[in-house]
Amino acid sequence: MARTPEATAAPGAAGASGDARSAQPGGAAATARANQVKFDTTDLKSSYCNVCNGSSTREEVVLNFGVNSTWDLGRDRLEVQLQHRIVMSPHAAKRVRDMMVRLIEEHESRYGKLDG
């Protein structure tokens, strides 16, 4: 059976409900219902990646993720198998950046500062 966790959506998050209930007066309960997002994880796949690079144009930001499979060879030549390409709008990329900053700050507060 697929897990479908629910979370409160951030303002402007993709998938946030915009139905008529949120436009009607109804107090906090109506607003809380409108801000719920149900994540369907039925087809979710996980991948390990240890390499990331990116590029951008005026209309999109592109992130490439892959695996460096030459960990045991010299540094003169690396072989990276790119496995995933994520293409998003600059606005979505900015939200991803903000989320990553928060996640790294939380990680460092728990486990100590990261080098780099």
UniProtKB/TrEMBL annotation:
Listed Pfam families: DUF3467 (PF11950)
InterPro entries documented for this protein: DUF3467
Domain of life assignment: Bacteria
Stretch list, region Disordered: 1-31
Name listed for the protein in its UniProt record: DUF3467 domain-containing protein
Lineage: Bacteria, Pseudomonadati, Pseudomonadota, Alphaproteobacteria, Rhodobacterales
